[in-house]
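User: Structure please.
Assistant: Input sequence and predicted structure:
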Amino acid sequence: MHCEAVRDALLDFANGETGPARAWTLRHHLAHCTACMEELAALRRLTSTLRRADVVPPEPAVPFALSPRRAQVPRVFAAATASLLVAALLLLPAPNQNRRASPNPGAAIAAALDRVNTWHFSGWKLIDGKQIPWDVWGRRTPWLYYERVGDTVSWSDGKRRLRVFAPNTTLKRPLGLVIQTAPDQEDHGVSFLYDPAYQNCVNSGQASVFTDGFTKLYAQTTAVASFRRQNFTGMGGVNENKLYTISKRDWLPTTYQLHFDNRRFARDTEYLQVHYDVDLPDDVAQPPSPDGYVHVDFMHPRGASIAAAGSVFENHGFRVQAEPAGVDRGGNVLIVVRGWLGGNRLTPDSTFSLNVSPFNGPVSGRHREQKIPYLYASNSSVPPGGDVLLPYVPLEPSEVAGAPPDTFRLSLSASPQVQVQASDQLNANGGVQPVTRAESLFTEDFHWRLSLPLPVRDLAAVLPVGVRPPLPSERDLDDQRRIYYNLSYDFQATFYEKVLPETILRKFRDPDGWLNYYHLNADVPLSHLNAIQKKHAAEYKAAEQNFRRRAIYWQERKIAALPRMRATSPRERYLRERDDTFLLAKLYQMAGDTTGMRRTLRRLIADTRTDTSLGVLHRQAQYMLRTGQFPTDAGYKGPS
């Protein structure tokens, strides 16, 4: 499950409104994904803030679908309007304002949108320096979504999705394509959801757009309120801003702009205006079917689905193969992944390419009866020929010394992708920089149990000449291990194995004997699990503390590896060591080791006392030493 889909469901998950199967999938992802765990924590803080302010949080990315049928409305429509709605919701009064003197704009917006059945976004995108017409039509009942950017069309009636891609030899597409997929096969939405604010305002916006301080009211009249969100500042001081206008008359979003500026220029690359309760044209309501285009149907499996044929899996005409390439003396494993659509190999040079996303968290290797946890090394590569190389490293290298795994369990998501053109970026002089990105057609999850009867040798020896194994540096690997131990809840598996009888655990073990505590968490009532943790509080704390201690160990290893870093200046190594030392103090704090925390902070304070460039870090360390709180915790007001 990808981060985009997880974040789209976080609010329901945080409020306990997710079904058992969906909740297990989300827990599996959250347990191993740093970014999504931080997103969930921020979302919970936001919800708490809104409740304290006596404000009801907005619906999770379904701004128009406020009727009891909202769960049945595909999220494409929801995300397509959320970018404008989120800015409107910023009109919610702050807790210290007089709410009696001003009605709740959020409630007014919700009521206004609840009365809307159709809508039409019209405008343009700047692509290759030209303003390309851009239209988005939608209808809530019966549901319909239509988007057109130039000759590229996306259409859905909630039962199927059609995407039309015009011929484009530059994008390796000699023929026009009409691609049909089922809505539930998608990993994310169509192009409109990417560009205006899908990732910033739908995925993370429900948490960060309210708390990060970047979306601000910058102009208003008696009729409208305008908001600006500075997305980033690029090279040469180029600012990217998302601009939103909200009508005060009916509290509906009216315009959206993607705006670039610096001291030399100011220019829009996207513009939309919105009209509501409009009649949908016939060519919008009917599925597109241009003449001369090749039709590709991914809704139904082609022939018998292969459950497991060697290392090959197939679904919806999409075939994926994974096989081990080698194991080195350190126990590092290199996996090769290949993909086909029908009989056509997916390569970077073909019309469709292969995207592979390994699941976050440890996978299991096995040497005879010994189970060995492995981490994906987050450094895949695609050499010439199209093979995707995935490196895996043992979570604890000492466990594989002299005993590399002979079997390996692998899980990943894979998707066929097609190249599309996105809106232009602008450089420091206002010049156009065309942007091409890969759009996933749908995503399938695959699981393998691979045999590793391979000789132990250097991984470079199993690759073509000139291709290097995509293993990160020693320091980066230490950091990945630290992140896993610091943020993972896998210690619960150790805890449950100690306190629960085998008659219960047996139901949740995989074929290799690993306890799948995600299934256990999903199937056993939360009240029972809480009671177990309370009854065995000492064992639970010990299992958690073991993870905390391993996080400290790998952070110390990461710091120790700094002198061996190449291609970095002594000054850069010095600065990194100070930042890493501050994080080490935080890890000691999380582990409840006050002595280690204070010892680390005193060393850091002494090292930064005379370096004026590290004054902020010096004062943060002093604050933490004085209060025992990390500077981002409650109560810290910034360096004085």
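The chain has three domains: 58-282, 312-471, 480-627.
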